């Protein structure tokens, strides 16, 4: 379950759209795809809020349509929510019209898009921009989808995250729970690094606050 070497799971500085709107030295934890259930999503979001932490959620439109993700609830509890497309196609392999369809409801409406698989290029970015959105990738990929246990994920996030990083995880795997986030917060704090905090409202198109 080790996956790629850490150096191969980072996007080098200055390449593409890695860090999105975070201009602070705080680490932003981001979670893609779908939570296991709506109850799991709500309890996790509420518990993360209680930690004073703000994460960014990129659910699929299909999750919203099926009722396993509540955009308004997450935003009301301090989490930014942006689009991950409707059903996770590779945007570099579909037509412009198909890309634009992936940005419409039930996909999340907002400023930022996390392209499925991180598949984006200048052309995809221009099509996305025509819909009033921008691409947000990541700096460090945990590869949690390999089924890594929680302790390993926490250890990697704490050890390898750098100030200002965007960290990639997924809602259906083992980092999306309050215990994991609390341990990440504690471990990073021991290195002098803060997680994104609850500073200002979390809206669809407003400024990104940490």
UniProtKB/TrEMBL annotation:
Record's keyword terms, sorted:
Hydrolase, Metal-binding
Q: Does the keyword Hydrolase apply?
A: yes
Which positions fall inside the NodB homology domain?
21-135
Give me the stretches of Basic and acidic residues compositional bias. Answer: 1-11
One protein family per Pfam = Polysacc_deac_1
Q: Which GO terms describe its cellular component?
A: membrane
Q: Which protein, by its recorded name, is this?
A: Polysaccharide deacetylase family protein
Q: Which organism is it from?
A: Propioniciclava coleopterorum
Q: What is the lineage of its organism?
A: Bacteria, Bacillati, Actinomycetota, Actinomycetes, Propionibacteriales
